[in-house]
Amino acid sequence: MKVFQRDEDRCGPRIVVLGMFDGVHRGHQKLLEAGREMKEGGEAKLRVCTFDRHPLTVLRPEAAPPMITSIPEKARLMRLFGADEMQLIPFTRSLADLSPEDFLQRLRERTRLIAIVAGWNYSFGRGGAGGADTLIRDGEKHGYAVRIVPPVTIEGGDQVISSSAVREAVAAGELHPAAIMLGRFPEFTGIAEAPAGAAESRVRLRSRLLPPDGIYRGRIRFAGERENEGLVIRLKNGYAAPENRAGFRRSEGEKCRLILEGRL
């Protein structure tokens, strides 16, 4: 899948899915599913347009949340769910100051728009003034389709699946609800450390969003390998290490993903 920042030329038709997509949870997956349905039988490619950082890191840095997924992890998941390309739009104050109409005009000028897919609560433009109604009006005026995807809720309840809800669940150590919302067990990026004189390696976690320190059931997956099954993993001060795998040793700097299934 192609990942890029600079605007591409308008050589081919695109179905554009808009959103922040942090976590690529089941609500986001519904957006991608809608885009794939609109793409079927046509020549258009499915493009995800998202920002290269959370808008609050620019507008109100003190309120910016920890991200659930890194950009490489987001790209991996986008490819898994059928996106052909992902555009990372640099979020700046000048972009934030664009009116909703100017934001859409820029998108139309730089993309051969066939359709836009967005969530029911997607907002854009200065002060978040643009929303679903703005997209629908613009689509009717300029001749592209618009599909607004309704909220996705947890089965048997009315809780709307959102990135904020996933963050709250992970931060509280409630990994089962987080897994239900994500459609997979929570994952965290890490890098192996092999301290001099230490008998075993540990994993320094690079994700800002982590569950509380404690003992967890989980797996560790290194690049190009199957994950280690059935691990009891201790999290402490931003580090993870298997409790039940004597002699756990990895090369310094090896990248991995930690998959946590539940707290013990």
Number of separate helices:
8
Question: Mind telling me the C-alpha Rg?
Answer: 20 Å
* Mean pLDDT rating: 93
Quaternary organization: single chain
Q: Give the CATH topology of the largest domain.
A: Rossmann fold
Strand order, biggest sheet?
1-4-3-2-5-6
**Amino- and carboxy-terminal Cα gap:** 38 Å
Beta percentage is: 25-35%
**Helix-strand sequence:** EEHEHHEHHEHEHHEEEEEE
Instruction: Quickly count the domains.
Output: 2
CATH class group of the largest domain: Alpha Beta
User: pLDDT under 50 segments (min length 5)?
Assistant: none
Annotated CATH homologous superfamily of the largest domain:
HUPs
Largest sheet: 6 strands, parallel
List keywords for this structure.
alpha/beta, six-stranded antiparallel barrel, Thrombin, subunit H, 12 strands, six-stranded parallel β-sheet, Rossmann fold, elongated
